[in-house]
Amino acid sequence: MTIRHGCFFSYAHGQHAYMSKFKDDLVDALKCYLEPHFDNEDELFVDGEQLGGGDDIDQKIARALCESVCMIVIYTPKYEAHGYTRREFAAMQLIERERRQWYTLPSHLIIPVIMTRHPVGLPLQITGPGMYVDFSRYTLASGDLKTNPDFLPDIEKIVHRVAEHYHCLKRCTPPEHDCSRFVLPDIPPEWRAIPPPQFPR
């Protein structure tokens, strides 16, 4: 197996400035601070930058996940509502299970970044594994994440965690491991029970 990406970026696409600017700002900040830790790998895999027309999307996504050190999840209520993003999340959980057989993981491979909280709270999938970083105070007035002192400590936490996993993976990956064999799982069920419809009395 060859490590090709520091982090796979998993997020629900948005059409308007708030979602797209947050994603772009976070990508820019992480690329800047991850770059010193890697040899020739890309800092991030972002589907909008690295998928082209004619690609077998499922195959390309599966391989990119397998060849990534960790996964960054931009959590919004929209993220958990989309089957495809839940599928990426489940795929990285499978990869984590496999890597646990190679070395003692210093932490989970999925790093949730909270952009917008769900009105009834964060799901267990996001809070259960432990560390997540809360950027829900971000607005379009927040400016550049990579130079904003309010957000830099959390950026540093993410970078440290990815760098730690990177060095473990470089040391411990079995040489015969082949990421071309990894396939995405089926779309998992909803993360929350859907309440029954409320009919007027």
TrEMBL record:
Listed SUPFAM superfamilies: Toll/Interleukin receptor TIR domain
Cited Pfam families: TIR_2
GO biological process: signal transduction
InterPro entries xref list: TIR_dom, Toll_tir_struct_dom_sf
Ranges for domain TIR: 8-137
Full protein name: TIR domain-containing protein
The organism of origin for this protein: Duganella guangzhouensis
